[in-house]
């Protein structure tokens, strides 16, 4: 199987060949204000299958997140699994890939996050979900702003009816744009104060697996100084969750600012400390 360098070269080739499509999607977001782009058939199908095969199908070794906000499993401990999972993750973090994406989108001085604060591997099983939210504004050290979220889906033969699909919301958070978590699909979205997104409930008895990365910059999206924790709300029909989310977000933000406590800081990638 290809190593990290080979995967990096394959990513560079695919992204470079998709420049015109990327720019068209990025500058003309449909049914959402959040800029984003999609690349299908990112890698050879055999490579994608090997990445999927490396995920532990019972989620063993993954951290459980479960609350009114979300239900999923995740891990940034790349050294605990087959090397292809760290190879593909670090391929996305290679400076050549980061610089290529930044140049296409017109971003300045983007940087990866080898510690994978909130990035890494995720698995979602039947009944798992992720409610509408905006991501934490910063990295774990609060030195850089999150600017891009990269999601690479690898579960085979995935269909929209399986659930576990990515959703980008309109400004009022009333209508989502659904992006199916198709096999071998890369979704890249901007992260800012209004980039509300979610994952629909998984409906099938097999895992939806994803390799996730963030890119950061020292300057915020609007050139202002701000901070917020990962902030959740309910879906339009979930009135109680929406009301509770306002209080929950404010409380967690106050605690995080006051005590300098970051959500999931103990789950960073130990290989890159």
Write the layout of secondary structure elements.
Layout: H1 4-17, H2 19-27, E1 36-39, H3 45-54, E2 63-66, E3 70-75, H4 83-93, H5 95-105, E4 111-112, E5 120-124, E6 129-134, E7 145-153, E8 166-169, E9 176-179, E10 185-190, E11 197-199, E12 208-217, E13 231-232, H6 239-259
Antiparallel strand pairs: 1-10, 2-3, 3-5, 3-6, 4-12, 5-12, 6-11, 6-13, 7-10, 7-12, 8-9, 8-11
Helix pairs in contact: 1-4, 1-5
Distance between the termini: 27 Å
What class would the helix/strand composition place it in? Answer: alpha+beta
Number of helix segments?
Answer: 6
CATH superfamily grouping: q2cbj1_9rhob like domain
- Helicity range: 25-40%
Note the overall shape: globular
Poorly predicted runs are: none
Which CATH class applies here? Answer: Mainly Beta
Mean pLDDT: 93
Instruction: Write the CATH architecture name.
Output: Sandwich
CATH topology: Jelly Rolls
The tally of domains stands at 1
Strand content: 15-25%
How many runs of DSSP E, i.e. beta strands? 13
CA radius of gyration: 17 Å
Compressed to H and E, one letter per element, the order equals HHEHEEHHEEEEEEEEEEH
Major sheet attributes: 13 strands, antiparallel
């Amino acid at each position: 199987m290809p190593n990290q360098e080979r995967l990096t070269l394959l990513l560079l080739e695919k992204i470079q060949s998709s420049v015109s499509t990327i720019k068209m999607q990025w500058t003309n977001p449909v049914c959402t204000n959040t800029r984003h782009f999609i690349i299908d058939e990112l890698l050879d199908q055999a490579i994608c299958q090997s990445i999927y095969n490396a995920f532990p199908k019972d989620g063993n070794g993954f951290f459980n997140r479960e609350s009114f906000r979300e239900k999923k499993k995740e891990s940034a401990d790349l050294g605990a699994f087959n090397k292809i999972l760290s190879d593909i993750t670090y391929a996305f973090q290679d400076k050549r890939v980061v610089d290529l994406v930044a140049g296409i989108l017109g971003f300045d001085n983007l940087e990866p996050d080898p510690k994978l604060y909130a990035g890494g591997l995720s698995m979602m099983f039947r009944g798992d979900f992720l409610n509408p939210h905006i991501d934490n504004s910063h990295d774990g050290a609060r030195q850089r702003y999150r600017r891009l979220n990269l999601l690479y889906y690898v579960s085979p033969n995935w269909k929209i009816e399986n659930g576990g699909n990515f959703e980008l919301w309109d400004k009022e958070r009333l209508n989502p744009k659904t992006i199916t978590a198709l096999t071998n699909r890369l979704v890249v979205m901007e992260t800012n104060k209004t980039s509300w997104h979610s994952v629909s409930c998984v409906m099938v008895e097999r895992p939806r697996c994803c390799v996730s990365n963030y890119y950061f910059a020292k300057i915020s999206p609007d050139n202002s100084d701000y901070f917020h924790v990962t902030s959740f709300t309910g879906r339009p029909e979930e009135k109680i969750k929406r009301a509770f989310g306002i209080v929950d977000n404010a409380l967690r933000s106050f605690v995080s600012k006051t005590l300098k406590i970051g959500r999931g800081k103990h789950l960073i990638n130990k290989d890159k400390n």
